[in-house]
TrEMBL record:
Record-linked InterPro entries: Bdr (IPR023856), FAD/NAD-bd_sf (IPR036188), Ferredoxin-NADP_redctase_2 (IPR050097)
Keyword Ribonucleoprotein: no
Cited NCBIfam families: Bthiol_YpdA
Keyword vocabulary terms for this entry: Flavoprotein, Oxidoreductase
Xref: SUPFAM superfamilies: FAD/NAD(P)-binding domain (SSF51905)
Protein name from the UniProt record: Thioredoxin reductase (NADPH)
GO molecular function terms noted in the UniProt entry: oxidoreductase activity
Length: 322
């Protein structure tokens, strides 16, 4: 641990793995540190999730992602990124959370509960899936309320509220409905989101139109209690019986972690981190950003398919300095 790595990569998701592959091929010493399992965010996606993109757009390091279906699902993606990591013998430490990035002369000291690692450069590729956007309503802390959705079987025969109108919310509403749940959607806007997968959007709209799924538009959750919930609608408060609330309100990067590392954020609500889009280097010398963490609160700007190039930009800039 005393020897300094050329680059320490924080985050073992697809983009962190892409940075590791690129560093390895460039002959740089590197280490990936991931606080959970490999591709932890993907692992925590819903069991039956299907990606919007085709498999070739999810490939990293020019390693083919072979998929029978037009669009891969969660198990196929987990298998692909795991095989990429193991077959290339990438240097990855799992279940080890980074607690600090401390400048140390021309290097950085990366702290975890298990050790301290020296790195000449640091790449932060931590994504945004760890911190949900809270509703800040009474009862949100009840066990019946969750900001993560995994398996529809859990909600069979229950009265379920789903908050949101984009892909995660629509998937949760349709899947729980088909497992026998009585589903009510609370939607802030006047309809289903425009970014919803094109093969799913007609399905949810038809289920709402026929009354199989109840939807309140221009509405929000006002309060949650053990056996019921209040919905603020244009016509006033509506109280309905309720067993579970699935709040698909989105997520945000760990801004505290970025700021403690010295990375500046914009003063507006977007909280854009400061970085050079040509090199991905932040205002902190030799600290880089990669992947969706670059978007601040705009979590729908960066995806695997359009941030894979961050790895090439970062490693090219590191090599040019060497």
């Amino acid at each position: 641990m005393d020897a300094a790595y050329d680059v320490i990569i924080i985050g073992g998701g697809p983009i962190g793995i892409a940075c590791a592959l690129t560093a390895q091929r460039a002959g740089l010493s590197y280490l990936v540190i991931e606080k959970g399992c490999l591709t932890n965010s993907l692992y925590n996606y819903p069991l039956y999730m299907t990606f919007f993109s085709t498999s070739e757009r999810l490939e990293i390091g020019n390693i083919p992602f072979v998929c029978i279906n037009p669009k891969p699902n969660r198990p196929e993606a987990l298998e692909y990124y795991r095989r990429v990591t193991t077959s290339n013998q990438l240097n990855v430490k799992l279940f080890e959370e980074v607690t600090g990035i401390i400048p140390n002369g021309t290097e950085y000291m990366v702290h975890t509960p298990k050790g301290k690692y020296h790195g000449r450069h640091v790449v932060i590729a931590t994504g945004f899936y760890d911190i949900p956007n809270k509703l800040n309503v009474p009862g949100e802390d009840l066990p019946k309320v969750t900001h993560y959705y995994k398996d529809p079987h859990f909600y069979a025969t229950r009265k379920v509220i789903v908050i949101g109108a984009n892909n995660s919310a629509v998937d949760a509403a349709l899947e729980t409905y088909r497992k026998g749940a009585q589903v009510t959607m609370i939607i802030r806007e006047d309809g289903i989101g425009k970014r919803v997968k094109y093969w799913v959007k007609p399905d949810i709209e038809n289920r709402i139109a026929e009354g199989s799924i109840k939807a309140y538009y221009h509405s929000g959750l006002a309060a949650v209690r053990e056996n019921e919930a209040d919905i603020l609608t244009p016509d006033g408060i509506v109280t309905i019986p309720n067993d579970f609330v699935i709040a698909m309100t989105g997520y945000q990067p760990n801004f505290d972690f970025l700021q403690k590392a010295g990375i500046a954020l914009s003063d507006d609500a977007k909280k854009y981190p400061a970085y050079n889009p040509l090199t991905m280097e932040t205002n902190m010398p030799r600290i880089y950003l990669a992947g969706v963490v670059c978007g601040g609160m705009d979590t729908h700007v960066w995806f695997i398919e359009n941030s894979r190039e961050h790895a090439d930009k970062i490693i090219q800039h590191i090599r040019s300095r060497a």
